[in-house]
Amino acid sequence: AGTRVFQGKTLATWFDQMQGYNRDPGVQTLREIGSDSILYLAQQINRKDSFLRRQYVALWPKLPGFLRSILHGPKSAATIRMLAIGTLREMGPAFTTSDIGLATLMTALDHPDIEVRSRAEGAIGDIGPQAKGAVQALIRSVERRDLTSTGHIDINGIWALGKVGPDAKVAIPVLESIIRQKGGRELVYAAEALIQVGGDRTMALAALERALGDQDQQVR
Fold first, then answer.
1. pLDDT computed for residue 49 by the predictor
2. What is the band of 1 on the pLDDT scale with cuts at 50, 70, 90?
3. How many C-beta neighbours within 10 Å does residue 144 have?
4. pLDDT above 70 covers what percent of the chain?
5. Which runs of E-coded beta strand occur in 13-167?
6. Which of 6, 16, 125, 172 could form a disulfide with 160 if both were Cys (CB 3.0 to 4.6 A apart)?
7. What's the whole-number mean pLDDT along residues 58-82?
8. Cα–Cα distance between 202 and 92 in angstroms, integer?
9. For residues 164 and 56, what is the distance between their CA atoms, to the nearest angstrom?
10. Across the chain, what does the average pLDDT equal?
């Protein structure tokens, strides 16, 4: 897919020129390219560093400034993965609800990298009720949630279950377990999601009342 040519450049070149998925003009270019973009992003989401790339990434900061000015700065596989999954999310539901788009996001929910899983969860939450086919994969991702690069526990999957709504009722036991055992943002998001999927509203409201006394201002 990366060899697809659009306006004189390959898809891989367009992607390589992107600096960040948030309002990057390259996102619109990938939208115009269409389904080939999703195929290419799916490949990049599973990108792994070769030995030579790892060496180049480690060496780059040590190179003299004049060399860095004329050489192409390397991106680690982790950076490429984040750019790819973030770009797919930014492309929006018109693309993420397609068969290949949703399948790519669901596959990403099982990725070993928590950052990939978290962004995939966010993209599925953006889809809302149309993502009901991803509920079981979301539940698995929520059950293995971990700390992200910000040092906070990943709550995107919990949020996404709520956005799916009543079709995510199978997640009620997981959400109730989080409410019973956790606090902070996990508790707040789980309580909100429990209401949205049609679970025990009394339990959810009691949890939210407890959260009003949390030491964290954002939680309150």
1. 66
2. confident
3. 13
4. 92
5. none
6. 125
7. 76
8. 35
9. 42
10. 91
- Residue 159 token pair: 């949020």
Q: Which helix (H) or strand (E) holds 28?
A: helix 26-33
Distances (CA, A) of 22 to 18, 28, 89, 161: 10, 11, 10, 23
Distance CA 169, CA 44 (A): 33
Count of CB atoms within 10 A of residue 219's CB? Answer: 15
Identify whether the C-beta of residue 110 lies closer than 8 Å to the C-beta of residue 91.
Answer: no
Binned at pLDDT 50, 70 and 90, residue 74 comes out as low
Neighbours of 162 (CB within 10 A): 21
Residue 119 burial (CB < 10 Å; 0-12/13-18/19+)? buried
Maximum Cα interatomic distance, the chain, rounded to a whole number of Å = 64
Predicted model pTM: 0.86
